[in-house]
Amino acid sequence: MMCIGILGATAAGAAPPPTAHVVKDPENRFTITIPADWNVQTSTSGRTPAVSAKSPPASGHLSDSVDVIAQDLPIALSPKGCAGEVAQIMRFTIHEWTTLHEGPATLAGLPAYSRSYTWRTSAGQDRRSVQTCVTMGRRAFVIVGTTANTQGDIQEHLAKLEQIMATFRPNAMNLPETQGPGTIHPEEGGSK
Question: By residue range, what is the domain housing residue 105?
């Protein structure tokens, strides 16, 4: 089991620290607890993360970040299938990365698939990310925590990012229908 699953198990019963606040997705698909001093943006656009949170900027460094993407798909995918689809998108966005480890995990008590990887920004800054895919029927969630890829930042910030990610809670009461848009139901006849 990946470390996100372990953190999820320990954090599930723990109360969030008093210096954090619960952020609710604008479309009521999930919540996540973010440190109070982080900048949080929410979006209803399918092209940007539903929630994007960044730590206060440090001089000369990029902020740490946690992003949550929620997408309703035409068909249901497994968490591993979701991670495969995300890798296709990564080829167009960050182009190259080095996978440190990946495999099945647990997040919010649900089966998940996690990938830890390093990559470089277009400005040449080395980054390290932990990405976890969770699926519920046709809805896929991708939660990504990113920090600088330096020994000090990894030791100081990576565990905090994983703790934030472990507070992710999907809303099981607000899921899309089992069948995707444009699906012909057998009783309707016809084909697409």
Answer: 3-169
Q: Read off the pTM.
A: 0.81
Residue 114 DSSP code:
E
Name which of 128, 78, 82, 81 is nearest 101 in CA terms: 128
Q: Beta strands of the chain (E only): which ranges?
A: 20-24, 30-35, 39-42, 51-54, 65-72, 97-107, 110-120, 126-136, 139-148, 169-170
User: Does residue 51 sit within a domain?
Assistant: yes
Integer Cα distance of 8 and 170 in angstroms = 13
DSSP class of 157: I
What the block records as the tokens of 175 is 């899921």
Q: Greater confidence, 22 or 16?
A: 22
Domain tally, the chain: 1
